[in-house]
Every structure is written in C-alpha cells, then in structure tokens.
Design a protein that fits this description.
Chain lengths: 105, 105, 105, 105
C-alpha cells in the first residue's frame, strides 16, 4: 500500500482493491499473527510435541484464517459488490456466487 | 529432532511423540510451504490485490492445514492410540474423543 | 406456492421471496431426497448398522444440505440482494454479511 | 433393535454394532428431530419464506447432524475401536483413519 494512495477509500476496478489504512493494518496484523502461529507449530514439531497438542494449535490457525476471510468478505460485499451493482457492473454478482462455495462448509 | 534420536520410532509416553525422520520431514515441509503461503498473502495485501483473489488463496491455506492435520491424526491413531490401548492406557481414547470435535465440521 | 402466484419472478420485500416454479421444484426435490436420506439412517440404526457406515451416510446428508444452501444463496444474491441494492435498500448487505459466517467454515 | 438383543452391550463383529438401549434411543430421537427440521424447511419453502431465514434453518440441521456424528464417532472409538485393537483386529484402525477425512473440515 504505497504513499501515493488515491483519495477514494475503495476502488474495485480493474481487479484491484484499495483498502483504508485501518482495514489494511487490521488484515496485515492478522496475517503476521497467523505466520507466527505457523512458525510456532514448526517449533512444536522440532521439540517432538505430542500429536494432540499440535492438532489443537493447527485448528486455532484454521479458525484465525476463517476469521480473516469473513472480515475480508464482509468488507468486499459492503464496498466492491455494492458499488459495482449500483454502477451496473453486475458481473460482480457472478464472481461472488462463484467464490462462496470455496468458503462454505 | 536432534541426532540423538532414540531407537524407537514411536514413543507417546509423557505427552511426547518421536516421529520417524520421514514423517518429521514431510510434516515440516508442509509447514514451511504453509508459512510461504501466508507470506504470499501479505504480499498480495501490500499490492492491493483484489478481495476475491485473496479469499481463494486463504482457502488454499486452510486446505493445506486440514491436509496436515489429517496426516498427523492418521499417524497418531495408527501409532500412539493403538499402542496405548494395547498397553492398557485407555485414557488415550478419551483424549482422542475430546480432540475430534475440534477437527470436525 | 399457490396458483395465485403474482407475475414477478422475484419479490424480496417484506421478508418474503417468491421463487420461480423451476427453482421451487428443484429446492423441494432436494429437501424430499434429504428427508428420505434421514429416514434411511433411521432404518440403518434399527438394523444395528455398523458405525462407520452410518457416519458415511450422515456425511452425505451434510453434503446435500450444503449443496442446497449454496444453490439458495446463489439465487438470493443474484435476485434479492442485487435488486435491493439497485433500489437503495442497502440493509440487504448487512443481512447477507451477518448470515455468511453461519454458512462458512 | 429387536427384543432378542444379546447380552453384550457392544458387538462390532461382522460389521454390525449392537447399541445399548440408551444410546439407541438417544440417536433415534436425534434423527426424528432432524427429520422434523427437514420437513419444517419444506413448509418454509411452501410459504415462500425469505432466503436468509431458510439458510439459517438449514445451518441448524447441519449442526444437528454434526452433533449426531460426533456422538456416534465417540461411542465407536470407545467401544468398537478399543475392543478390536485389544483383540488384535487392527484393521479397525485403518477403517477409522479412512473415514475421518470425510468428517473433518
């Protein structure tokens, strides 16, 4: 996210998405924490940690990733999807419909 | 996993688990790849990547983590659980029963 | 879905949703099949079926229900959500954002 | 589950499983309730219920089925799996390892 950030808080055109500073930092912090969790499990493996303890930690990472995805998706619908529909770019609907099954149970 | 690894390929006593070299390397390689994927998403975020593209990549990490967990769990059942039941340490059953809901849908 | 169905194929106002005959029949058929699957498992239980066989059948029902939900959600987004956004009823966005976590992993 | 139920509370041989009366009734009651929930959704569809309301109810059925599966699996591990391992029938391990991925996220 460069310094030359344009005024608009959301631009979804040309398959790019400028995020507000607040959203960017929140998402990046989540990813840094998740990276730390993955390295934590590497450390557990090096110390011959018990399988059950590793399984529980991996589940925690999955939960953190799902929480990240829910946050991102909610923002996407509230900004990109809504704006594009208002402007008549209805292809955003099919795009959303196509990605949801990947995220659902 | 040091050089002073003992003879036994599986010891699940005292909440530790010695893994075979092959299993250790497989699991560690998976974690290194997953760490790389998480960093890849940080890079996408820095480049203002489109929400949908990020959502798809995060789903791929979730799938990789679940695959890691399935591998680890299968090995745990085939070694620790089976051995402990044979030796009369039935508390391993309750432990497995308690962790499964965390891993199930 | 009575005979007095109005002209419009989609009306999402007042928390109702008129579905096209085709969509209605598709969804209802899926539910009838799912009901049959649930009764099938009752029959398995009565015949002392093996746990593993029951677990597999229950997983099949879960998959059928998820498939039903994906279908319904895709239709909801393509009709109700899109129409309401176009007409300025943006509360449909928050409603969608609130329900998605219940459907996601 | 006939009247001629044998003494043993668990017999997992020949791919059958005799369940205690208590377990049988608990599992059957859950299935009856789930069948009622599926019919309830058919009723919602007939009354042109709103998509979001249907999605939430289907999620509730999924949760009930998962809860049923967790119960059944816990009992299977505590009885069939443990007994078979003690008696040297280790094929029960592979069987469990094969079914778990179907039940996991």
């Amino acid at each position: 996210m460069g310094e030359d950030k344009k005024e608009e808080v959301c631009c979804c055109c040309e398959k790019h998405k400028e995020r507000s500073d607040k959203e960017y930092r929140d998402l990046m912090n989540r990813l840094k924490r998740i990276e730390g969790q993955v390295r934590g499990i590497q450390g557990m493996l090096e110390k011959d940690a018990y399988c059950i303890d590793i399984l529980v930690q991996v589940s925690a990472i999955n939960a953190a990733l799902n929480s990240f995805n829910k946050k991102l998706l909610a923002n996407h619908i509230g900004t990109c999807v809504a704006e594009n529909i208002r402007e008549g770019h209805d292809e955003v609907i099919q795009e959303l419909v196509d990605v949801l099954p990947k995220l659902m149970k």
